[in-house]
Amino acid sequence: MTQITQRYDADQIKILEGLEAVRKRPGMYIGSTGKPGLNHLVFEVVDNSVDEAMAGHCSEIIVTIDPDNIVTVVDNGRGIPIDVHKETGLPAVEVVMTTLHAGGKFEGQGYKVSGGLHGVGVSVVNALSEWLKVIVHREQKQYTQQYFRGVPKQPAGETIQFPKEGTGTTVIFKPDIQIFEDLEFTSEVVDHRLRELAFLNPGLKIIFKDTRYEEVLEKEYCYEGGIKSYVEQMNENKELLFSPPIYLKKSRDSYEVEVAFQYVSDYYDEQIATFANNIRTKEGGTHLSGFRTALTRVINAFAKKYELNKEKDSPFSGNDLKEGLTAVISVKLPNPQFEGQTKTKLGNSEVKGIVDSLVDEGLTDYVEANPKIARNIVNKALIAQRVREATRKAQELVRRKSSLESTTLPGKLADCSDSEPANCEIFLVEGDSAGGSAKQGRDRNFQAILPLRGKVLNVEKARLDKILANEEIRSLITAIGPEAISGLREPDRFGDDPPIEQTTAQILAKLRYHKIVIMTDADVDGAHIRTLLLTFFFRHAREMIEAGALYIAQPPLFLIKKGNSKRYVYNEKELETVLAEIGRDNVTLQRYKGLGEMNPDQLWETTMDPEKRTMLQVNLEDGESANEIFTILMGSEVEPRKLFIEKYAKTVRWIDV
């Protein structure tokens, strides 16, 4: 890493405001007090260490989650300044730990660019922790201070001489149970973010340890290839149009643009990950818009120059260049502005032009130097262009004036009488037998039933025109509301300004039912059908999932009878608990293989009655990991699926044949 010499001491610590509201309104600072907010505490501390790496002063970060959900983050950066802050008379590290918007990132001297530009990070973690301890090694001294719910135990901390060489900061904290719904960090989410940061910072070693369980998890990430390696990892187990990925890195003034992208031959969706100062911008923004515009222009110019597109009056749209595209876009800028409902969209207007110009310049040089790869991209776009034209006609079959005014609802749909979508729910049921029980057992006022015949189309392997021609998919789309299926609407041109962000209320307004419930049998076929439906919703109605409208019904696996009493049991673990409680003598045990085996009143009582049922709400906490799983399970490559089955086969207890 390049060493950058900059002054970094107490004078760089600027105070903007206090910390009083954090414990009262934690959601304003970390999004929620559920799992996402809890995991975010780790990221806030890690981001400070990554900022040191971006400034050229840190090469290793170690993150550990220990029993009792105690988190330790250690880096070998410069160490937070420990000298006295002039404005407060306190050690600078205490100012950073106890004051909102205090840090070395506001004056542009301590850090040139930073991910934590809001400056709320570690002070918010401190405020929302039962206790936090900070240890700083700097200037051959060790400074230690401990806090309880944001209040320092010792006003000035403790400083001792530390003759060992090296500098760095260690932060240890335990989240506060008074704030969070539970304290169980999600190892997979933390691990994914740390791996992501390693990709974004070439040469930075990040070690993750989770010692909470019998099998200790320890992973080490360091990628010299940076985002180029990131794209290769995203496209693992896929047939590639070309390899290695196209990689561009250019700078202008205080802005740095880094892009890596590649095309997959037999894949029709796009995967794009965008970042601004290492912050994941899930909703894209001006950097994504600039990349799309440049890509479309350069490929069209190449096709025109060499007369590769015979339809001269019909240049490629951005959507023709989306199919199979995998890209990572990372920009570094001095003062990022984030907007959108979840503050995950880059809003700096100047960034679009800078990214557009730099990518255009770099990509033009690349395609001229690599004409074979450019021709492969053009040929893929030509196929997509032809399919897009055919798809326009198919789209008209599933579009209508509004999601509530259709006169062509599927004949097999047993609709409900209530016309207010917020009150209504639809059950997607496997087969006519289960559909019959569900129709008889439901409450007709607010519950609709749509039986699906057999296994629906695997959309992971199908183009859009084939998807829209599938009868079961069309019935599903028409029943729940075509305008809510974002992936099947008439697309905007790839390269135009990003579409206006939709709120949850706007998404729900397009649905005929605010609860879409997948209700399949508890056997292998039922699990397969459920996965096929989840694949469809993930690929073509992701906004609906993010709005919280998709659910999975939880029918019971067993009926236990003993004497005059009966109990429904929903999993094997619960079965063992109940049998241990009531005894195993004179017990009649019935295992339900399918919903059709249940009487209508049993189905209502166990699975459909809002007063008694249990349903799983489908959420999308980590879209990239979900994408990897769907690619493995539903993609065309067999070997990754075989390895996945071999890895998890031992955990399967019930297999129906």
Textual characterization of the structure:
There is one protein chain. The protein starts with 13 loop residues before the first strand and ends in a 9-residue tail after the last helix. Strands 2, 3, 5, 6, 7, 8, 9, 10 and 11 form a 9-stranded mixed sheet that branches. The chain has a 5-stranded mixed sheet with strand order 12-13-16-14-15, sandwiched between helices. With 657 residues, it is an alpha+beta fold. The chain is globular and about 75 Å long. A hairpin with a 6-residue loop joins β10 and β11 (217-221). It has 3 domains: 10-221, Histidine kinase-like ATPase, C-terminal domain (Heat Shock Protein 90, 2-Layer Sandwich), CATH 3.30.565; 227-394, Ribosomal Protein S5, domain 2 (2-Layer Sandwich); 410-555 and 617-651, Rossmann fold (3-Layer(aba) Sandwich). The longest helix has 26 residues, at 371-396. α8 (349-369) packs across α9 and α10 (431-441) packs across α17.
Characteristic terms for this protein:
657 residues; alpha+beta; Heat Shock Protein 90; Ribosomal Protein S5, domain 2; Rossmann fold; 3 domains; nine-stranded mixed sheet; five-stranded mixed sheet; 26 strands; 34% helix
The domain count comes to 3
Question: What is the helical fraction, as a range of percent?
Answer: 25-40%
Structural class: alpha+beta
Largest sheet: 9 strands, mixed
Strand content: 15-25%
Mean pLDDT over the full residue set: 84
How many helical stretches? 19
Low-confidence stretches: 106-110, 398-407, 489-500
The coarse overall form would be globular
Q: Report how far the terminal alpha carbons are from each other.
A: 57 Å
At the first level of CATH, the class of the largest domain is: Alpha Beta
CATH architectural arrangement of the largest domain: 2-Layer Sandwich
